[in-house]
Amino acid sequence: MRWIWIDRFVEFRSGEFARAIKNLTLAEEHLHDSFPGYPVMPASLIIEGLAQTGGILVGEAGGFTEKVVLAKIPRADFFGVATAGDQLTYDVRLTDLRSEGAVVDAKAYVGGELLVDAEIVFAHLDQSRANQIFGPKNFVFTQQLLGVLDLAKARERAKGSLSEATSDAATAAELNGSPRGGF
């Protein structure tokens, strides 16, 4: 079983930037395990959420043809904790993309306040070696994880269609002599 630490993307610019959110609720068992009586999101899971956001950004930049794995975390500074009821916002910027891997600058916020500032390095696995070890299935970009990105893209398309329809209606109204917005 694989856990997804992203609820949804709120912004995604291919090859550049991704913003995702994770809502923390008391229904999540992992919040109760670290400090009994004080439901805190474990730091490792916040890093995993940042890595999932960054991994999708890196993978999408390459058309999901490479198996992308977290290689190392050279730096991760924590400035507080996230608790039940908080909404984590993951902001990840692609700073270096090469054939062998990528680097992202990753930040997590709670209520607009910086919670985590990290650098995450990803590696692209050599296809032949990765297939020998793991088989042809892409164990990194599971359908469940990619579904989160698909939802964001569908929402963007819907927003674009709505904007286009509103603009077309306003133009038609102006051509017919109706005041703008008089639908």
The radius of gyration is 20 Å
Order of helices and strands: EEHHEEEEHH
Q: What is the tally of helical segments?
A: 4
- Low-confidence regions: 178-183
Strand line-up across the major sheet: 1-2-4-5-6-3
Cα-to-Cα separation, first versus last residue: 51 Å
The CATH superfamily title: Hotdog Thioesterase
Structural description of this entry:
The chain is α+β, with helices and mostly antiparallel strands and 183 residues long. The protein has one domain: Roll (Thiol Ester Dehydrase, Chain A). Helix content is 35%, strand content 33%. The chain contains 4 helices and 6 strands, in the order E-E-H-H-E-E-E-E-H-H. It has a 6-stranded antiparallel sheet. The longest helix has 33 residues, at 143-175. The radius of gyration is 20 Å and the shape is globular.
